[in-house]
Amino acid sequence: MDGFKKRLSESVQLRLSVTLCLAILLVALVASIFAFFSAFEEAHEQQDATLRQVAMLYDRQHMTLEYPHGPALADDDEETRVIIQRLGDGQHATGATDEALPLPFPASLADGLTTVEVAGEAFRVLVHTTARGERIAVAQESDARDKDAREAAWRSLLPFLILFPVLLLVVGDLVRKLFRPIGVLAAEIDQRAEQELHPIEEQHLPTEVRPFVVAINRLLARVGQSMDIQRRFVADAAHELRSPMTALALQADRLAATDLSPMSRERFVPLSRGIARGRQLIDQLLSLAAAQSTSERVRTRLSVHAVYRQVLEDLLPLAERKQLDIGMDGAQDVHVTFNAMDLFTLVKNLVDNAIRYTPEGGRIDLSVTQTPGAVLLHIKDSGPGIATEEQARVFDPFYRSLGTDEAGSGLGLSIVKAIAERSGARVQLSFSDTQVQRGLCVTVWLKAL
What we know:
By secondary structure, this protein is α+β, with helices and mostly antiparallel strands. Helices cover 51% and strands 16% of the residues. The protein is built from nine helices and eleven strands.
């Protein structure tokens, strides 16, 4: 019960449904009571009218009375039969029961309808004075009349008994349909990616929900504006840092060309590596800002193998430095529709990540396969791989797996994720060797042509 009360207090739909059902129940109950008693009284009025018509028929046809003797007729029902007798004959009744005619009705009864009890049995009696001055009594047992009236009253309740559950079902279905746009709206917002901040369509929504949607659209606009400001700040900061870092790199190169003592050379090497990491971080910050940008990208038809070759040309010196066996696996090429710079940046970050974390003498394979409706890019390496519990977190900016000594900024997979979300692609991480759970296999799903 407490759970239902909590749901009732939290759910507008449930509260509205319960309120409408209770209102329908109350109205149906009042209407049923009114209809029952109205039908009951109407049945009595019709029965009284029947007694009057019998009296009028007797008077109009100038009928004569003769009390029955002998056995009753086969179809004669003692409970429902209509009795006609002279009112004065009641004092000559042969018994005190209602089985024999005439019945002992008092001769003093006034003209009109009245209820008389005879031998413990109630009778509805109409006393009528005919045109000949004869006073007659037309009577019927009250129990039979009441029984017929109750049956007629109960039959009048059948429409309510049928209509009430149907109406409850209709109201419940109507309330669900009225609240369905809200559920559809919630599902639509829930399925949006992080970068999808375009306004919600509000024209097809009910008027009561529209102000709420307008407020959400204004909030989305403010959030989008705030994110644009942050992205511009990151891009501007990275751009401003690029010049001094380039100057530092040039000065470091000039210093490296001079004669340095062994101790100075030993201290210079970490400085040079730090400057290189700083330059790489700035370049990746610029790439991340560009990947997170909401501006439209021009899509063209691209060869996956051509992109692979371009990436390998850029990163081959880094792979040769670690003596890695890197190349394309498979001769079949596949074409996709994608933005050229986005696809190059995506593949380059994945391959760069594989080169950095694959030990010397390792292997990196780039391949592509085509399935119905999708093109799958695979980048496999023989490195340590990423633990299953960390595979979701490695896409966060600046997150790096514990226990790795490789220098890096932790932005490579974040750039890949941003490009994938904006372009409708999907990235999955797994092990290259599932048995020993080593090596990283990155699979990128792209929509086919």
